Amino acid sequence: MPHYLVAESETAEERDARREHAGKSSGETYAATLKQLRPDAEITIVAPADEDAQVYSAETIAAFDAVFVTGSPLHVYDDTPEVARQLAFMRTVFASRARSFGSCAGLQLAVAAAGGAVRKMPDRMEAGIARRITATEAGRSHPLLAGRAASWDAPAIHGDEVERLPDDATLLASNAVTTVQAAEIRHDGGIFWGVQYHPELALGEIAIALRRQADALVEAGLAEDTNAVEARAALLDALHERPDHRALYWSLGIDREFANEARRRLELTNFLEMLD
């Protein structure tokens, strides 16, 4: 029976806010998705940002079969105690040599912990759907992206991005909005696979995230007003309920690769299969 460690990259306040809107914290969402993919798995959720969080040693983390690092509103370039604690946790994950996977802020944490750089995206955001993600030459043969088409769309919402990968990292996929959409990082004996998008999220959760950030999306110029954000969120909600509805494909400009849950989860599934 595999035993996974899921690390929340949210603060306690952010976890409570997400539960109020989405019903689960990011870590609880990750755990639920992992249980669907591996029903026999035992899952431990930790919150390294918390002041009273248990501090895990490398030896303790090494006992887990894998570590998963969630997304969140975290800005890893902020000089705060919460960020410092999470970076320390991620450095310990690398030192443990446990296999690890992260999405969105999880990727950014791994980048910063290994010596790379993360920044606020200049004059733009990526929200709802990351379009035309394309594998690099290295990515086309990397097991993280096994089974992916030449280009694909994925659920995403972020205003920060990787500015510079650390040493001994491999860029695996990019798109026109964000250079680092997928990467492998090797650091201090550990191996991390990460994506800037969200293979763990249901489309209904992306819709909730759009609504929560509606004002920021309007300010970024992605929507004329909050009514336009609501219209996009409603389409994602509808696709969540009716993933085979062709009219929704046309309205959202997507194909079955995005609409199909198993295909959206492909990177996460590939990581789990690598562990088996």
What key attributes describe this structure?
276 residues, 13 helices, two-stranded antiparallel sheet, nine-stranded mixed β-sheet, alpha/beta
Strand content: 15-25%
- Order of strands across the biggest sheet? 2-1-3-4-11-10-9-6-7
Indicate the overall shape: globular
Uncertain residue ranges: none
Q: How do the helices and strands follow one another from N- to C-terminus?
A: EHHEHEHEHEEHEEEEEHHHHHHH
Integer average pLDDT: 96
Q: Separation of termini?
A: 11 Å
Largest sheet: 9 strands, mixed
**Number of alpha- plus pi-helical segments:** 13
Number of strands: 11
Helix fraction, binned, reads 40-55%
Rg over CA atoms, rounded to whole Å, is: 17 Å
Helix and strand composition category: alpha/beta
